Amino acid sequence: MILKDFSEYDNFVFDLDGTVWTWNKLVPKAIQVFQVLRRKNKNIVFLTNNTLLTREGLAKKLQNFGIKASTGQIINPSLPAKKVLKNKKVFCIGEGMISELRRSRIKVVESRADAVIVTESRNVNFDNMSKACTILSNGVEFYKTALGGAWVHGKDRKIGSGAVALAIESCCGREATLIGKPSQFMVDEVKVLNLDPEKTIFFGDECKSDIALGNIMGFKTVLVLTGSDNEKNYLVATGINEPNLVMKSIANILK
Q: What is the pTM of this model?
């Protein structure tokens, strides 16, 4: 059963990394949470900055864990990226994003690019970061998909695209335009869903990303402590970064 505090909401929005999974496994009771929400006919959306996989790949990963999900339920920075990079030649540090761009017939190149975008990648190295800096010296457009410097992988922290972008920004003396949470680009993607703010609740593990976007949208925001941020982060969070509620895990949705 859903706790009374949550039963009034029709739309349940979830971050993925550190909220639903720690990449290689689900957080405890995640399957039960989504089974109950579906039985109660709740609308479920996954709102993530994760681009290690395509949106289809992220949906399949959820399915392989035993959680029903479709590509349409996944909102990530590949959606705004395909819009801002349309008809451009792009140098991309990433994995899933490269596939998403190519599917949209956006040319991914190694030189003479019109834009550089930094996304999640397990293949970041000195050479591709240096290449990005060289291309950016020509004054081309510069984008990043996240602010966060790490992403949760089991009990470990992996270098996130925000940290990679920061290194490149430092080298180039330029700041990348954020297209992931909590940017206006992602706000616009969520607006397309026409979610009633008073009937929507958003669960995430990062105050400056998840909670900020949820608050901008007027959703009820819940910080879970299974990922990046802890109680210390909550205590210093102010303004749009401050959640309405803090819980140990999404498992606390259930009685």
A: 0.95
**Is the alpha carbon torsion for 75, 95, 174, 17 positive or negative?**
positive
Helices (H), the chain: 4-7, 30-39, 55-65, 78-84, 96-103, 126-136, 161-172, 184-191, 212-217, 231-236
pLDDT digits (tens, 9 = 90+) for 20-58: 999 999 999 999 999 999 999 999 999 999 999 999 999
Q: To the nearest 5 percent, what fractions of the chain are helix, strand and coil? A: 40, 20, 40
In CATH, which of 3.40.50.1000, 3.40.50.1580, 3.40.30.10, 3.30.43.10 is domain 4-75+182-253? 3.40.50.1000
Q: Which residues contact 145 (CB under 8 A, 6 or more apart)?
A: 49, 51, 77, 81, 97, 117, 118, 119, 120, 161, 178, 179, 180
* Beta carbons of 84 and 119 less than 8 angstroms apart: no
Q: Do domains 4-75+182-253 and 78-178 have the same CATH topology?
A: yes
Residue of 139, 96, 147 whose CA lies nearest to 115: 139
Contact 158, 123 (CB under 8 A): no
* Cα 189 to Cα 35: distance, rounded to the nearest angstrom: 26
CB 186 within 8 A of CB 77: yes
> In the CATH hierarchy, which fold is given to the domain comprising 78-178?
Rossmann fold (3.40.50)
